[in-house]
């Protein structure tokens, strides 16, 4: 299809819809590869905490802090989330709290209700959120996450005509992840419970492992296999498996036993069967990290971030992010997420072994 429509490559064809240059895709892969040592540092920490002689791929998924005995009833969670997001300004919190009080949220599990949590609504309604709240930290984090989506939708719909009153998938996870990160940092800062802090730090480390590194590995695999096709080379299941295995050995490093059967994992990843989507998870988290760091350091104002939420489709995704000070063509944006990951690893290590 890319050839028929005269694109230079299939990646270029896929990125065209969001008016993105292929350099954004390549910058993500190049930056993550240049900082692969931080991921290997995390695996060394896992090996040490789990007290295993060899760290296999299946060990990577083991939680370092197993018990979540902390309860956050819904009303308390709403207060905690509101306080955590107070850095975003009085107007933001007033709209958010009004939404909570005005029944934007269907809170608890119910018969026939789908699992998980999500935010929806349409141009001429308030946003609404469906949760399955059960008093766990993950539930409170999901509340913050979905409120991020809903506030993004609220600002977009109330500041744009209908044709611009929505936003691209490319930026959809930025606002929700900003809220998640602000909540995590707030709870860690204000908690006096070592296990609670460790539990949340472990959650964050897994978020970075699975989103920045794993999704970028997927994106690199996808780029490589399309390049084979565009170079006129044959593509078979064995070639795909060997390519996937080589990448796994690079990303997991020498201190992890990269079991050979992992070479077949590509077969079950649904995103590989449609075009170039997974990189958006990594760029979204990177943009969110950059925004959170900039807000906390005072490099950007809450008003700049709110202006980003108001953009909708009136600007393309790259230009709307620039309103919040984020330029994804800049090495420093992706690197800021890896810096945050590195700091969290150090914070967990110091607290765990103290």
Protein traits:
mainly alpha; single chain; 5 strands; 354 residues; 3-stranded mixed sheet
Strand portion:
under 5%
DSSP E strands, number: 5
Distance between the termini: 57 Å
Sheet/helix structural class:
mainly alpha
Which stretches of 5+ consecutive residues score pLDDT under 50? none
Side-by-side strand order of the widest sheet: 2-4-3
Radius of gyration: 21 Å
Instruction: Describe the largest sheet.
Output: 3 strands, mixed
Q: How many DSSP helices?
A: 13
Structure notes:
- A three-stranded mixed beta sheet has the order 2-4-3, with helices on one face. The chain has a two-stranded parallel ribbon with strand order 1-5.
- Helix content is about 60%, strand content about 5%.
- It is mainly α and about 350 residues long.
- Helix 6 (about 135-160) crosses helix 7 (about 170-190), helix 7 (about 170-190) packs across helix 10 and helix 8 (about 195-230) packs antiparallel against helix 9.
